[in-house]
Write a structure and sequence with these properties.
The chain has 178 residues and is of the alpha+beta class. It contains four helices and ten strands, in the order H-E-E-E-E-H-E-E-H-H-E-E-E-E.
Length: 178
């Protein structure tokens, strides 16, 4: 269902979602990420810099929530569940595949200075492009969420339709008030 909805909305554009995590002080943090892949089990994957705060948040809390706003379809889809970082010790084939699928400019981000660090007086440390043949840096990691709860709000009917699915042994569907 999710892939179909996203394909209808984002046929030729990136699948942008908001990813919410919790920091080490228990404060919520949200940022936009590109959903690079949806696995057959429904897991959502984003590429992320291992030096970033969001990777530390995921490592600390182990949970995340993704929200997609599909403006053209007038739907919001939220997916939450166990979230993990896949780094050098993880699924090398998946990381390699996603590394090669990035644009040269996107790959360059992973060899820039660490995200969130103070910026120096010049831009010499900012490489413009990195080819797919360049070995994957250790900073290239994946954030993977395997949803155990999904909610969809459809603003098309009146009243709006809101549905929640929860995974226990199997997926259970429940209609909710919008």
């Amino acid at each position: 269902m999710l892939r179909d909805e996203l394909d209808l909305e984002h046929a030729a554009r990136p699948r942008i979602a908001q990813l919410a995590t919790v920091d080490e002080r228990g404060r919520p943090r949200v940022r936009s990420v590109v959903c690079r892949r949806i696995l057959d089990d429904g897991s959502l994957i984003a590429a992320s810099d291992g030096r970033s705060a969001k990777n530390a948040h995921v490592r600390g809390a182990g949970q995340g929530e993704w929200a997609f706003w599909l403006a053209g379809r007038r739907k919001q889809i939220r997916l939450s569940g166990p979230t993990r970082v896949v780094g050098t010790e993880g699924d090398h084939a998946l990381r390699e595949d996603l590394w090669r699928a990035l644009s040269d400019a996107a790959r360059a981000l992973f060899v820039w200075p660490a995200p969130g660090s103070p910026r120096g007086p010049c831009d010499v440390d900012f490489v413009q492009a990195v080819s797919a043949d360049t070995p994957m840096p250790a900073s290239f990691e994946l954030i993977v969420t395997t949803p155990d709860e999904v909610e969809m709000l459809d603003l098309n009917p009146h009243p709006h339709a809101r549905t929640r699915w929860r995974r226990t042994e199997a997926w259970e569907e429940q209609a909710l008030n919008p």
